[in-house]
């Protein structure tokens, strides 16, 4: 086959499918020349359901490129049903469970994956509380509760504060607030007053003037706010502020929220 | 060793560590009798950095239970450095890449994992736009833009609309709005007016009266709003509304946002 053909990729799971998608997609990024059509089938809880999906996939084997099947099913009857599939089966659990059983000297529980269930109820509740906190403290709203924040993201408008805050909350249960830097913050001396007691918790975001101007233009075309000159001024002023108060910062122009979150956790030494 | 001992678990990555944490934690849930102390080391980009981490882990081998090391490093020199570690090495990439190389008939790129980078810029921008949309349309704010929503989560207060909306946006790039059901919606006939043109896009959330009353009590102790009676009334009324308008729904009391999101994607046939 040529690489122009579209190869189906199935993510099969007895739970949400998140784990299968995550590792499966990581592996697929190693084969950038291929075109893939991704289908997630979550909540396969019986061998019969598994056989139905296998039937669908086997029909595709006859007519096009052999589908790739990433599976994270845990129960042995479901895994056996999936193993009969004529696609390229990549068993993401079975391969490693055996190794861990041997090393830990105890058998795996073979319960369906609960990694993305309620699991540890306390940890789950704290993640939900963090989301609520992030919603309530977005963009400098209700500054009173900054003392509860584990980290305060500081940046000019549209540098990625909101999605990064939300990601830290939802994925990692981190209480993250954010604080927008505006012109008057750059005209005054020192840190903006609400941040002064919490400088140790501040993490700055910056961007590139051109990129920031593009993003702001989508929102308010032709405004002074979106001008390259204003964006350059704000970013220079913000970086000066970060440096003079020893606030760690990163440029958000070329990294994803996931990468920003991982960097912030590491630099701020936050335990999640 | 006994299972009371705390075994260190390392997630090593040349990128964010998200993939290593996701599959690693899924595997660990199969061994519930053990106590684990989790440490993520992201952004290992040189063999020297890898050797430093290996040195830290090898010191632990001498003094306690053998650490488990989940690795998603892609480049061969980093993988070789990690392979020298005396912990229990679980190589989540290498194991499967070989299988895919053979099946696809092409070599892996061996570029560091970009699954959680900007990757597909268009897809990334659409996720960020979805987060912005979710922030702006939380809790029935600005109903005007409901026609842009791919799904509208409908539920009484505190049934999990907001975090589920945010998860759908941030992880899956789904444009999700949400609409709170209040007493006056139950007193009138039919669907709330703003939802009527969009009944096909509605998905309902329910809960258990006791659970909902507990959650509301945390927010407003002793209020009529938090009473078991009021919670029971709202949930019964909401479920009647869902059933009579054929709106699919689920009970959020015992499932996680990840499970809700996966169910909603599947039931509403949303492509992400």
Automatic annotation (TrEMBL), chains A, B:
One of its GO terms (molecular function) is phosphotransferase activity, phosphate group as acceptor. Keywords: Kinase, Nucleotide-binding, Pyruvate, Serine/threonine-protein kinase, Transferase. Pfam families: Kinase-PPPase. It comes from the Bacteria. InterPro entries: Kinase-pyrophosphorylase, PSRP. ADP binds at residues 155-162. The keyword Cell wall biogenesis/degradation does not apply. Its EC number is 2.7.11.33, 2.7.4.28. It catalyses: [pyruvate, water dikinase]-phosphate + phosphate + H(+) = [pyruvate, water dikinase] + diphosphate; [pyruvate, water dikinase] + ADP = [pyruvate, water dikinase]-phosphate + AMP + H(+). It is an enzyme of class 2 (transferase). The keyword Kinase applies. Bifunctional serine/threonine kinase and phosphorylase involved in the regulation of the phosphoenolpyruvate synthase (PEPS) by catalyzing its phosphorylation/dephosphorylation. Belongs to the pyruvate, phosphate/water dikinase regulatory protein family. PSRP subfamily. This is Putative phosphoenolpyruvate synthase regulatory protein.
């Amino acid at each position: 086959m040529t690489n122009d053909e579209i190869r189906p990729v199935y993510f099969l799971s007895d739970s949400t499918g998140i784990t299968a998608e995550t590792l499966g997609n990581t592996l697929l990024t190693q084969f950038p020349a291929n075109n893939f059509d991704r289908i997630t089938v979550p909540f396969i809880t019986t061998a019969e359901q598994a056989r139905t999906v296998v039937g669908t996939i086997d029909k595709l084997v006859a007519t096009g490129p052999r589908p790739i099947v990433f599976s994270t099913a845990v129960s042995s009857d479901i895994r056996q049903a999936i193993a009969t599939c004529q696609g390229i089966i990549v068993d993401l659990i079975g391969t490693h469970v055996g190794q861990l059983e041997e090393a830990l000297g105890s058998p795996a529980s073979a319960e369906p994956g609960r990694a993305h269930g309620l699991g540890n109820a306390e940890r789950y509740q704290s993640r939900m509380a963090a989301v609520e906190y992030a919603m309530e403290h977005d963009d400098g709203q209700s500054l009173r509760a900054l003392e509860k924040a584990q980290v305060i993201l500081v940046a000019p408008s549209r540098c990625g504060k909101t999605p990064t805050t939300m990601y830290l909350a939802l994925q990692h249960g981190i209480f993250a607030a954010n604080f927008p830097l505006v012109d008057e913050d750059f005209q005054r001396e020192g840190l903006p007053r609400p941040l002064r007691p919490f400088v140790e918790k501040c993490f700055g975001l910056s961007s590139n003037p051109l990129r920031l101007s593009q993003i702001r233009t989508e929102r308010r075309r032709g405004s002074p706010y979106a001008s390259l000159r204003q964006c350059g001024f704000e970013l220079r002023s913000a970086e000066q502020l970060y440096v003079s108060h020893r606030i760690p910062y990163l440029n958000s122009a070329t990294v994803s929220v996931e990468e920003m979150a991982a960097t912030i956790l590491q630099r701020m030494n936050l335990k999640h």
